[in-house]
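Entry type: protein chain
Record version: 2
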Amino acid sequence: MTLDTLQIQLADREHTFTYPQAEDQMILSVLKGRDYPLAKTRLIGDSPIIIDIGSNCGAAALYFKSHHPGARIICYEPSAATHELLLANVGPIDGIETNPCGIWDKEGTFRLHYAPGQHSGASTLQPSGSWPDDLGGEDIITKKLSAELKRLKLRSVDLLKVDAESAESAILHEVLTGVPDVPIHNIFVEYHGISIRKHLTEELRPRYDVHLCSVATDRQGTLLFVLKGLA
């Protein structure tokens, strides 16, 4: 895997950000705010709690931190090699913590299936029927987000970002039903398929205002759900 680097300014310091060269367009899209436009969110206070599921090498965490320097950002990345890169990128930054595990609606050890081209941002727990079976993978540990919120003793979450390659619906359903007393104010979620976008919208619309943030292809994009009644 060929790596490339960028210098990213955070407060009065520059940080070296290392990422897979093959994912250049995806990484830059995140860093430039196209995928997760914070202007559409309603974040209250100077120290928001942000949870980043599917952190990859840390582009979203750095983007969030650059706009909210006082944020506490909790990252989850299950792939061992990708987590090592994530840790190198964000480990030296105060207020960002990483967890080498996946989030799902099941707890245990499961197979993470590698994507074509070994793209670190596209490995999946739920390969489609057409997914090649010779790409390899690794066994990872998964946890439920509801259990993590209880472990972290969080009374609310200001921003949740979920990019889990087809596991997004299961993750959101689990946490919203598992700890309904812990409000999640803003949710960025990547969808894979128009039917998934429709399902997510129908399930969350009673409690959330819905915004379509980006459309990468006719089957993939990013939705933002903002909890109704926020000031």
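Comment: The chain has six helices and twelve strands.
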